[in-house]
Amino acid sequence: MALVELRGVSKSFRKGDETITPLDDIDLDIDAGDFVSLMGPSGTGKSTLLNLVSGIDRPDSGTITVDGTEVTKLSRSKLADWRAANLGYIFQTHNLIPVLTAYENVELPTLLLNLSSTQRRQRVELALEAVGLSDRADHYPRQLSGGQEQRVGIARAIVAHPKVVVADEPTGSLDTETSEQVQVLLQRLNKELDITLLMVTHDRDAASIASRQLMLDRGKFLERGGDKESGSLGEWEVGVGNAGDSVAIKKFG
Ligand SMILES: Nc1ncnc2c1ncn2[C@@H]1O[C@H](COP(=O)(O)OP(=O)(O)OP(=O)(O)O)[C@@H](O)[C@H]1O
């Protein structure tokens, strides 16, 4: 069983008289240890997908299972606990709380977990160390650079030792050099700490650091074939990211 399994997932929104259905009967498998990047045109439902996987929103139909737990079946209160323990979320703009230090921002999600103060301190220190910011623990967000703020946001996402971390354009508001540093950091977290990552991005370079590259195109997943080890990238193939769909080759961009 894959770590993350989506089966027959659909999600619609009402906009005035119109119904928009960005995700219609989607299937997807993500294995433990995968680093998946997800690209696709604006409005195709990438953020919607992250919100469903992280239990922030619910699908209209279909099931989402993470590490054996059917997230779509959890009650609202159980979902909050599940999310705190199992899911990390990295935002495009880090969403740090300005009146809290880096340490306190990272500590915040751990307050929802059943941990002693010693365990909590260890987790926060480890997370800050993992993103190379131990020496900035007492700084407030305004005293940090954009890249450092994003690294604090990443530390906050991993502090609970989640099963999965989802990231919505984590390099979207960073300059090229800082973006590259964050990409290297995400790759290290995946390889060294074995964190399973699902990252939405519009940046081809950021997408290419992932071990699997998906594209969401008109409600269907395309997956980039090729040999990651040798660096040769193939074409986008329909249906590979999907569980079950027929596999037809289609050129994309
Ligand atoms: N809460 C909501 N209420 C109404 N419509 C919504 C809501 N959330 C998303 N949508 C609509 O669903 C569609 C998919 O939105 P989503 O943000 O998932 O796309 P996206 O692929 O992430 O786009 P982008 O690349 O521009 O961030 C859009 O048409 C959007 O307007």
From TrEMBL:
Entries under Gene3D superfamilies matching the protein: P-loop containing nucleotide triphosphate hydrolases
One Gene Ontology MF term: ATP binding
TM region positions: none
Xref: InterPro entries: AAA+_ATPase, ABC_transporter-like_ATP-bd, ABC_transpr_LolD-like, MacB-like_ATP-bd, P-loop_NTPase
Domain ABC transporter: 4-243
Record keywords, A-Z: ATP-binding, Nucleotide-binding, Transport
PANTHER family associated with the record: ABC TRANSPORTER ATP-BINDING PROTEIN, IMPORT ATP-BINDING PROTEIN
Protein name: ABC transporter ATP-binding protein YtrE
Organism: Stieleria magnilauensis
Gene name linked to the record: ytrE_2
